[in-house]
Amino acid sequence: MPEVGLGQIPTLDRAMELAASGKFSSVNHIRQYLRREGYTDVSRELGRPAVNIMIVHALHAAVSD
Fold first, then answer.
1. CA 34, CA 42: separation in Å to the nearest integer?
2. CB 55 within 8 Å of CB 25
3. Engineered SS bond to 9: which of 14, 27, 48, 65, CB 3.0-4.6 Å?
4. Count of CB atoms within 10 A of residue 37's CB?
């Protein structure tokens, strides 16, 4: 189970939110931003290939909108 602080959005949900914002160009950029926001489980939550593919698709969709 992901570590979620009080009032904190789960890591994957936040990553998808950031990807959809159109302000990020890569999964690594999102990972760095999440760490700066205080997420401690970034490697574990975003380390699976399927998750990375989902984020990449969201990044591409944000650019094409």
1. 7
2. no
3. 14
4. 13
With beta carbons less than 8 A apart as the criterion, state whether 40 and 3 touch. Answer: yes
The answer to whether residue 1 scores a pLDDT higher than 70 is: no
Per domain, the residue ranges of the chain are 11-64
- Determine the Cα–Cα distance for residues 48 and 22; give it in Å rounded to an integer: 22
Residue 26 CA to its chain's centroid (Å): 10
pTM of the predicted model, to two decimals? 0.86
pLDDT one-digit tens code per residue, 6-40? 568 999 999 999 999 999 999 999 999 999 999 99
Q: How far is CA 61 from CA 2, 16, 40, 48, 54, in A?
A: 26, 11, 27, 20, 11
